[in-house]
Amino acid sequence: MDKKTRIRSVARGQWLNVAIVSVTAILFAVAWPTLQLTHQVSPPIQPFVAALAAFPFVLIRANPALGWAVSAVSALVIPRVFGLQEGYDYPWQVVHILVILALLAAVSMRAAIPVVGVAWISTVLLFLADTPGTNGRGWAVGLTAIVVFGLLIRWLVLSRRQLARQEELSELERTRRTILEEKARIARDLHDVVAHHMSMVVVQAQSAPYRIANVSAETRAEFESIGAAGRAALNEVRGLLGVLRSDGQLAEHAPQPGVDQIGELLEGSRRAGIPVTWTVSGDQTLVSESVGLVMYRILQESLANTARHASGAAVEVKITYQSPIVSLAVVNGPAKRSLASALTRHESTGGNGIIGMRERAQAVGGVLTTRMHDNGGFEVHAEFAAASA
Fold first, then answer.
1. DSSP labels, 97-160
2. Mean pLDDT, contiguous 10-residue spans, the chain (389 residues)
């Protein structure tokens, strides 16, 4: 590996360190031979005095506050120990002035604010005390400008870093929300589709021995096994949905069934053994695609809940497509056991049925209500705004 390749492999921070050391060496090389022109210093001591003027610059990146302190103390001591050459009025070499100004700027950009205040005031007082004539006032203004400029750069860099950090956090949050929304959409669709059809399988398996004549004991046992397996699968699906599901109102993205498929859904439920009747009135073109999807899913879930919690109960469905309100009502008769307690257990154990229906209705600006009837039946009622003509 040649020298150029090794230099290119040096990190950016190392390049800065090399540059700082190089500048320090140049400053020292200038300060030493010119010291005899500005101060009355014996030749053996000249390199040490020149080092006090130039070497603090090497700390401008590693520890600018310490470098400033060394430079300021040496600036306070040198004019009081060594006399000035005739014709030179300033108490310090030009190199020393440049170094202390550079270190003051670095302190204002990187050190703690109290340290910046101390460095600024001390440097101003030093220049006011030792510079000839009225030059100290001009230096005080210049030093103040350097500190203000350094603070502005400091705050600008800090604000940019905070903005970049906030943008990074916002992007992470958007990504997280997108993932959660997609998981929730998948969970809801799995619940609406898989759970519904599996419920139909369980209902058919359980009712088959009563709907089919001359069922043998072996066949009856087979149907019971199918029903038990279906119920176990439903429980496992609900456990999986609990992992996928998240809070919040979510939008639909993928193509889904709508009001055109409601008739097929009702016919399929009747073939599955649910005694369902229905009436449909009005113009279904008043329903938007998103509302049609929600109506389909609410009806699907309502029929599945009836099959699970009120097996054998008669179901009446009424759909009205009118402006300005489109409505859907699903009413089932009394269950053999308390439907209210069944639905309460369904909600408390993490079921997604009624919660999912309510979320879907709210997502498209609709309202869904549920209530128990005096005879033990149950009603699901949803209303939506009709689409504009």
1. HHHHHHHHHHHHHHS-HHHHHHHHHHHHHHHHHHSSTTHHHHHHHHHHHHHHHHHHHHHHHHHH
2. 53 82 93 90 92 93 92 92 87 93 93 92 91 82 92 90 84 81 75 72 77 79 76 69 55 62 85 84 89 90 83 89 92 67 41 78 91 88 82
Q: 298 in a domain, yes or no?
A: yes
User: Are residue 98 and residue 228 in the same domain, yes or no?
Assistant: no
Domain that holds residue 319: 174-385
Establish if 59 belongs to a structural domain. Answer: yes
* pLDDT on residue 11: 64
Q: For residue 139, is it within any domain? A: no
d(CA 293, CA 185): 13
The CATH number assigned to the domain holding 276 equals 3.30.565.10
